[in-house]
Amino acid sequence: MRSLLSVLLIGVPVTLILCLVGLSHGFIEDSQKRNLGIGADLLVRPKGSSFLSLNGAPMREEFVALIAKQPHVQLATGVYNQTAEGVTLGAAGIDYDQFAKMSGGFTFVSGGRFARPDDIILDEFYATQTKKKVGDTIELLKSKWHVSGIMEGGKLAHIVVPLKTLQTRNDNPNHISQVFVKLDDPKQVTAVIKNLHELLGDDVPIQSMDDFISLLNVNNIPALAGFIAVVMGIGVVIGFLVVSLSMYMAVLQRTREIGILKSLGASKGFILGIILSEALCLGIAGTVSGIGLTYGAAALIHALKPATLPMIMVYEWWLYAGAITIVGALLGALYPGLTAASHDPIEALSYE
Amino acid sequence: MNNIDIIRISDLHKTYRVGTVDVHALRGVDLTVKKGEFLSIVGPSGSGKSTLFHIIGALTSPTSGTAVVGDQDLSRMSDAERTRMRKRTVGFVFQKFNLLPNLTARDNIAVARHIGGTAPEPTPEFTEVLRLLGIADRLDHKPNALSGGEQQRVAIARAIVNHPAILLADEPTGNLDTENSRTVLEVLRDLNQRMGQTILMITHNPEAATYGHSTVHMRDGRIVERT
User: Fold this and answer.
1) Which residue, A219, A208, A109, A99, is CA-closest to A153?
2) ipTM score here?
3) Is A214 a member of any domain?
């Protein structure tokens, strides 16, 4: 029972680490997939904006027409981004026809394109999360919307609304968050970027979609790497404390057995080896239980918040989380192990 | 029994510190034991019998005096050297059997072999010993499924599995009924007679003491008589 509890407790920080990594990688992968689904070759963002920005529309919409007229530009469309829920779920206001032309259009599971100004399209993840279907009303972005369609995920955003309606409801007409640009020849990306910089100014961020998507990685999310490091540190500390307490209890419980082994000629190293081996087993079993708990957490998250919290399994982190836990477990077992190894055999044999 | 002294003890003292009080457990013990001898040690509680055992068994070091087992001087041994000596030179049988409760009888014996550095599989000679001990068909049981007599015979098997020069039995019949006591004592006598095993046995039971070739009487940390 003691070992079982220890294994479960050791599994908790493993689960924390794997969930955190799974969520951050899931969020990044989800963003990459949705940006790839747009079909653009270039992205023009407002001056001073972050590549992660999901909110605000400081760019004037007239830029779209201006960009569209440039050489090799086949199509340009403006998008209005607004945070819908938490920090990971955003809605996008689009000109439906322009966006459909660029991306090839949405694939609808049910319903279809906007027919009314207050129409909204949800992807299947968000529809599942909110239990909405075509024809339902949904309160979002501080107002009510009518669900016109449920689309397959993986294109632009989980929530899409008409650009004009979003601009009006935000009291920000004729403004957008970014412009997606499709070229007639993708090889002209560098030349078009140069041209657009000359047109709009060098301080306007203009990137190829490939460059933009490559920026979407865990290391580029401010403070995330530090946060993961803190959680890993907590994992080591919890693993250390749980194993230390567990093994200390084990050593107390087995004092007489340690005395027996010493009477048989077991050396200090032999006794220490037994304790460390048990800690290693606890660490490995704790890692396995943590992975199991992570699958449980992922299933729960997927059932409850598939759009807000896109989580994936990052298998390479099983190894890291396991190594961190096992190091914590071995460190935690060191003191009880040394205590056991230095037991006086006569006292240990008389222990009741 | 032959004429070689396997144990030579001279003016042996052992003083324990309990809190702020010095306890003089041994106050000048002189003793020799021949190879192949079966020696019983009797005496009241606190007479120093167990302390003498602990020193001969290399579980603790003497405060002063000399204690030589075979050719090894226990008074000059480091902790690691005493550990090595327990591995090969002495075997213990305790009153409370002291088997590892989670292991089968077979595994209890195997652990001793493993620690002693001998091959994990018992030799044909040892298999014969197990048969003599009457536990050959009880080896796959855990201690809680064995009677007291069986547990003590497993403990004896474990104690001799590495062929120690000396078998130290501390009240081996103390927790057994009359019938099991007799069985265990006969096993010890058998081991002594058939295999020439040197045995030192602490006992409170005068009848048990008669199984030895001679009996040493201890009182107040000294040997007062040898009969």
Assistant:
1) A109
2) 0.89
3) no
